[in-house]
Amino acid sequence: MAWKTLDDMDLTGKVVLTRVDINVPVENGHVTDATRIEKIVPTVVDIIAKGGKPVLLAHFGRPKGKPDPAMSLKQLLPALHTVLPGRKIIFAEDCIGGPAKAAVSAMQRGDIVLLENTRFHEGEEKNDAQLAASMAALGDVYVNDAFSAAHRAHSSTEAIAHLLPACAGRLMEAELKALESALGKPQRPVVAVVGGAKVSTKLDLLGNLVTKVNHLVIGGGMANTFLVAQGVEVGKSLAERDMADTARTILGKAQAAGCAIHLPVDIVVAREFKAGAANEVLPVAACPADAMILDAGPQTVAEIGRVFEACKTLIWNGPLGAFEIEPFDAATNAAAAKAAALTKAGKLISVAGGGDTVAALNRAHAAESFTYISTAGGAFLEWMEGKVLPGVAALEE
């Protein structure tokens, strides 16, 4: 690994600028899901244990470069106190200048400083060097623990990393190790599951994966587009008919690379998109003109299970059907349960990520058994697409 971790740094007596992702949902000033806040605890606790003083840098919402009380990080203080009980947390009304300096200089050992929203400065999203220098002036060491923001070259994720000794925090370290084990140097054979509504949003992803994995399972609305490309009628199903040529190109690329593509062999169809709608299981080529495909059928699930059994590594992004409503969550739930069981038995390394994916795996009660679940969304997707993530690249220098 070309990047350092907290274990490589001497933090004794040092102010440690720590970029975290605590961009959590808030309603009426109260945090409704503190998962991201909970995940920063190991890094903060380790910095303190190593004699460092953690100063938290974070963004919240999209304030468009101006201070906005509705997007102040101040409202996250109660949630931070809950996950870091007994710690003094000092809030600074800015992430640079007088207020920030005063907060940092007031720190005692064991204290934590939370700096105000980095996006209250226009320069943050422009990766402004001067803003980065003003942040860097507050500390001695930079730690990036926000993999979910690593696909953006911003002052607090990229420019600042060049100005101080830099390393990855515990969450970033875990994420990068999991991703390396899934696509960097994976145990083979590797299977990728890619689902979701549209091929057009995952072109780069599919193009990269067919050259990296042995098996590619395509589900959701995307699968319908591939079926159309093969001349299969899909009735009123969601499909991007104008992407048929692109789908055929991807199929050709997969064949050339020796990657086996798995599409539904049977389908669950209904006449209306609602929970509990009357539905039937049909062979893939038998979709009625007035029906829509809302899930993969049991034969398809059985085939996916056999592929999982034959593989050593699984990487998953996107559901296999309309998982939000019953009974069209059946294929996603069954495939997730199979992956979870193989992982538990030590037969599969399973890594999953992306908003819908995490929601689907949680609904299937399978997430806790996966090797690693990434909550990073866009960064996870760009990494799967083979793109360089600026926030990670900056740590590698």
Q: Biggest β-sheet, characterized?
A: 6 strands, parallel
Give the strand order of the largest sheet, numbering strands 1, 2, ... along the chain.
Answer: 5-6-4-1-7-8
Unreliable stretches covering 5 or more consecutive residues: none
Q: What is the terminal separation in angstroms?
A: 11 Å
Number of strands: 17
Q: Summarize model confidence as the mean pLDDT.
A: 95
CATH superfamily of the largest domain: Phosphoglycerate kinase, N-terminal domain
Look at the helices and sheets and give the structural class. alpha/beta
CATH topology of the largest domain: Rossmann fold
- Beta-strand content bin: 15-25%
Judging from the principal axes of the Cα atoms, what is the shape? elongated
Helix-strand blueprint:
Blueprint: E1 15-19, E2 26-27, E3 30-31, H1 35-39, H2 41-49, E4 53-57, H3 77-83, E5 89-92, H4 97-105, E6 112-115, H5 129-136, E7 141-144, E8 166-168, H6 170-184, E9 190-194, H7 203-209, E10 215-218, H8 220-229, H9 244-257, E11 260-262, E12 266-270, E13 279-283, E14 292-296, H10 298-310, E15 313-317, H11 330-344, E16 349-353, H12 355-363, E17 372-374, H13 378-384, H14 390-393
Parallel strand pairs: 1-4, 1-7, 4-6, 5-6, 7-8, 9-10, 9-15, 10-11, 15-16, 16-17
Antiparallel strand pairs: 2-3, 12-13, 12-14
Description:
The protein has 397 residues and is α/β, with parallel strands linked by helices. The chain folds into two domains: 6-172, Rossmann fold (3-Layer(aba) Sandwich), CATH 3.40.50.1260; 186-384, Rossmann fold (3-Layer(aba) Sandwich), CATH 3.40.50.1260. It contains 14 helices and 17 strands. The strands form four sheets. The chain has a six-stranded parallel β-sheet with strand order 5-6-4-1-7-8, sandwiched between helices. A six-stranded parallel β-sheet has the order 11-10-9-15-16-17, with helices on both faces. Helix 8 (220-229) packs across helix 9 (244-257) and helix 10 packs parallel to helix 11.
